Amino acid sequence: MLDGFSFALLGRDGGARLGEFRTPHGVVQTPAFMPVGTQGSVKAMRHRDLEEAGAQIVLGNTYHLYLRPGDQLIARRGGLHRFIGWPHPILTDSGGYQVFSLAERRKIVEDGAEFRSHLDGSLHLLTPEGAVDIQARLGSDIAMALDECLAYPATRDVAAYSMERSVRWGGRCRKRLIAIRAGDAVGVGITNPGQAQFGIVQGGVFQDLRDQSAAATTEIGFEGYAIGGLSVGEPIDVMYGIVAETARRLPPTEPRYLMGAGTPEDLVECVARGIDMFDCVLPTRNARNGQLFTSEGRLNIKNARYAEDDGPVDPACRCYTCRTHSRAYLRHLYLAGEMTAGALNTLHNLSFYLDTMRRIREAISFRTFDKFRQEFLRSASRLSLDS
Ligand SMILES: [Zn+2]
Question: What is the Å distance from ligand 1's center to 283 Cα?
């Protein structure tokens, strides 16, 4: 076992798992939601707001940090934790997803992904080894292996070829990290010796490919496993089915991370299928667009019906936004284009997501998760206030 990182399963209720993992920067209780801090910052949030909302870990995007301000510069500042002033756990992605979704003129070859920066057009090659080196310099607590992100829909042949490449890249990532840990990698300083590495299961919507990928990825051996390439446009029941079957094929003793999902309902449904960790831009991005998640469903704060509504966004929420401001005021701030609109809305949405995770953990510990799940789904679908 890696010194500095460990995972303990503390309880189960049906398929749902209660646990915690220890990192060099503290403990994270699972199931956990990780707010997305794209450029070393969760948009519109100060770190103390994140702490107050209950965030135990945040996600940093390697692609963005590599291009600006640069992983070498961050390493010289003592690593990402010190640079951004967040002393708690951080997970970094591999950069692959942004190369596929943001970069211009990308070309995928066996060696890696060649792309042009979306900032200045400069040419870069992201290899599996390079993705490991960049994350070693950043010093996150959990680093992700580089995988190939498959577009949806994809034929079975394309999905199979891509999945096999992701397995090869995963093997190269593991080999590189082992070399770095042994001090055999020239030119890579280790910022965080206790950094764990997660492998990623791919295979699109084809369960047999997912099975092959899960077997090959666990054969390589990582500290945890992610399910990637879902929540990309496939029907929801297909996603839930793949999650359930794939989670079943991952080692029960390691954490399982569903990448890029999802709605509050997705979190509850995928916890029920054995997932321990989530990340998604939905609560933060939608907050900036005026969409708020509440215990009674979603609402759009710009809607005229809130113009003279003196009530809080969510009467059941204890966040600063709900304790202090009315829907009428938040609507005014949004329409006036005030910066505080984004900040207050984001604080509420993240508080709702993180409080949902806290309630999920509580329900699993009391073995009342199924009851919680039924009630949550019923209330989440009740509000058809705004589409
Ligand atoms: Zn609130």
Answer: 12
